[in-house]
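Researcher: Here's my situation. A collaborator sent me these components and asked whether they could plausibly form a single complex. I don't have experimental data yet, so a predicted model of the whole assembly would be a useful starting point for our discussion.
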Amino acid sequence: MARVRQKNGRDRHQEILEAAARVITDRGLAETRIQDIAEQCGVSPGLILYYFESKDRLLVEALTYANDKYYLAQARDLRRLDSARDQLSRLIDLSVPGLLPDFERLEEWALWVEIWVRALRDPALAKEREVLERRWRQSIADIVRHGRSTGEFDDGEDADEIGMKLGALIDGLAIQVLMNDAQVGPEHMQRMCQEVSANLIGFELEPAASS
Amino acid sequence: MARVRQKNGRDRHQEILEAAARVITDRGLAETRIQDIAEQCGVSPGLILYYFESKDRLLVEALTYANDKYYLAQARDLRRLDSARDQLSRLIDLSVPGLLPDFERLEEWALWVEIWVRALRDPALAKEREVLERRWRQSIADIVRHGRSTGEFDDGEDADEIGMKLGALIDGLAIQVLMNDAQVGPEHMQRMCQEVSANLIGFELEPAASS
DNA sequence: CCTGAGTTTGAATCACCAGTCAACTCGGGT
DNA sequence: ACCCGAGTTGACTGGTGATTCAAACTCAGG
C-alpha cells in the first residue's frame, strides 16, 4: 500500500508547519526564509515548495496551525477543572506570557502580533483571525455562563460583553508583558486580570488580594 | 543665505519621515520599499539614502516620529478641556480607531502594530516603544490624578494602576476595531471603554452618551 | 559671472531569495 | 528482477530591491 508514503507525506506536511511556526517565532515573519524552515526540519528548500504552493500560503497556514495547537492545549487544560472560578483563574494564568514556563505563551503571543500585522493586508488571514479571536473571547464567556448555570456566579452583565472586556484587557496587557515592559511584569499582569475579572463578574478575591 | 539651504535640508528630512509613515500605513512595514518612499515625496531613491543612513534607520525613525506627532495632537486636543471627566471621555473617543474621522487613529493603530512586531527583535525600537507606551498610560493616570485633585473624582485605586488597566483595555479593543472585527465596532468599543473607566474610577455614567 | 558646498539624480552594483526543474532514491507492486 | 511514482535533492533562474557612485545641478556669496 501507499500507506507509508502517504503517512510520510502527512507527517512532512505537519512537520513543516511546526518548523515554520518555530522559525517565525524565532526570527519573525518578515525575516523567515524558506531556507530557514528547510534547515529547521533538516530537508532541502525544494521540498518545502513541494508540499506548499507558495511561501505565503505556508506562512499563513503555519500561523493558524500554531494558534490552533495552543488553543486546543488550553481547552484541554481547562477541562480538567470543575469550578468556573478555577477555570477563569487558570485561563488568566495561562494567558500571561512567560508565567507558566511549560506553556509557551510567549511564542503564542509573538505569533498573534504577526497575525495582526499581516491580517491588516491579507483578507484571507483577516477572516481566519476573526474566527480565532472570536473563539478566544467565547471561551471566557462560556466560563462565565458555566459559573452562572451552577450558581457559582451571580447574574449580571452579559457574558459575551464580559468576555470581550476581559479578553481585550488580557490582549493589551499581554502585549506589554511580551515586550518586556519594565512597568508590567507577568505577576503584575496576572494580579490585574484577576482583579478585573472579579470585578466584572462580581465576586470577591479571597486568596490575598483586596482592592 | 545659507539658511535656506539648511532649511531645505531639514524640510527634506521631515518630508521623508512623513512620506515613510504614509507608505508604511499604506503598504505595511514589510512591503515598504525605498522606491515607494521616494515616489511618495516625488524624489529619486538615491536621495532617501542621502538623508538617512539606511532603510532600517529611516523606518524606525519614521515609526516613532509619526507616533510622536499623533501623541502631541492628542495632548493639544485634551488640554482644551477643563473637566477631568470630559478629558477622559475625549481621550477614549480619540483612541477608538475610525470614530472621529478627523483624527487618523486608524493609521496610528496600524503603526502601533508594526512597532510591536519590530520591537520584538529590535532592541533600539523596543526602548523607544517603552517610552512611548509609558507616556500613553501616564496621560490617563494624569487625568485621574487631576480629577482627584479638583475633587471631581473620589480617591480609590492607584492612578497608575488605573492607567495601566484602561490603557490595556483600549489597546486590546483598538486591535479588534482596527481589524474590522464584526463583533467589535467603534461605537461598541467606545461604550465599553466608557463603562469600564466609570467603573474603575467610581463615577456614574448618567449622560447616556456624552456624544 | 564664477565657485564650491550642498543637493539630487539615475544608472550600476551587489546580494539575496522565491520558485523551477531535471535528476536521483527507494519501497512496493507486478 | 524490474518498473513506477511519490518523495527528495540542490543547482539554477529571474526578479527584486538596497546601497553606491559619479556626474549634474542649484544657488548664495564673492
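Model: Some features of this prediction you could bring to your collaborator: Residues 1-2, 4-5, 33-35, 45-46, 49, 54-55 of chain B lie near DNA strand D (CB under 10 Å from a C1'). Chain B is about 75% helix and 0% strand.
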